[in-house]
Amino acid sequence: MSLGTLVENDKRYAEAFKMFREASDQENKMKTWILQDFSKLIKSTFLLKIEQNIVEMMGIGSGFGQMDMHLFDVIGNINHKINELVVEPNVVEIEKFKSSIASSVEYSNVTLDILIVSVFGKKMFGNQWRYFPTGRDIEEIIDGLGLNYMTDVINSKLDISECVDGNSDNGKLLLDFITHADYFSERASPELEKAIFEALDSNEYCFKEDVLHG
Fold first, then answer.
1. What is the pLDDT of residues 73-126, one digit of tens each?
2. Angle in degrees, 0-180, between the axes of helices 66-76 and 91-102, rounded to the nearest 10
3. Rounded to an integer, what distance in angstroms lies between the CA atom of residue 116 and that of residue 94?
4. Can you give the residue ranges of every domain in the chain?
5. 10, 31, 145, 202: most buried by Cβ count inside 10 Å?
6. pLDDT reported for residue 66
7. Domain over 1-24+120-209 is classified CATH 3.40.50.150
């Protein structure tokens, strides 16, 4: 049975993304970085170089916009208008984002331009099919444009404990998001599934805890 693309199933993508957020400490790490490091950086350097009162942003895979809104909070506190181009494959998530902006007075200075992309391109990455760009892919594009930029790496951990239990619906959703394949557990060959688990087990940012079932 061939693997489907998760981004083509809006409902399951949203469910898988929710499971990923619960299993990872990524959001907490990013929020801390935004409120501490980014806040200091943008006040001391970035905004001082903007001649007009408008900040142009681009969000890659913004989801429902939680991290973007933390960025808006920091930038907005310095009284700048914000225009953001959002690249996001999931219609369900982007509608949540748009609704949050439209219903919040504090984001009246924000304008969103939405670009929905179903698949960025498919290629083999290690033992995984990859349907989305990495930070390095984006850096290569910026390099090609000859733009100046700064990078910062935020390391986060992912709890893959549920993935070990073949009967766990949460584990199946998490595997879907990790592989960006629709119903991966049901459709993947034993060889591919084994390769994915070997890749996860060897990843320093993934960990497993004992999962108890009554």
1. 988 776 678 999 998 888 888 999 999 999 999 899 899 988 776 544 444 334
2. 30
3. 8
4. 1-24+120-209, 49-118
5. 10
6. 93
7. yes
User: Do 82 and 76 contact (CB within 8 A), yes or no?
Assistant: yes
Contact 131, 16 (CB under 8 A): no
Q: What tokens appear for 79 in the block?
A: 């009284």
pTM, rounded to two decimals? 0.80
Q: What is the DSSP string of 194-213?
A: HHHHHHHHT-TTEE------
Residue 201 corresponds to which tokens in the numbers above?
A: 């087990």
Model confidence over 147-205: pLDDT tens digits? 888 888 888 999 999 998 888 999 999 999 998 888 999 999 999 999 899 988 888 88
Are the C-beta atoms of residues 156 and 23 closer than 8 Å to each other? no
- Identical fold for domains 1-24+120-209 and 49-118, yes or no, is yes
E strands in 33-138: 54-60, 81-87, 110-115, 123-125, 128-130
Quote the CATH superfamily of domain 49-118: Vaccinia Virus protein VP39 (3.40.50.150)
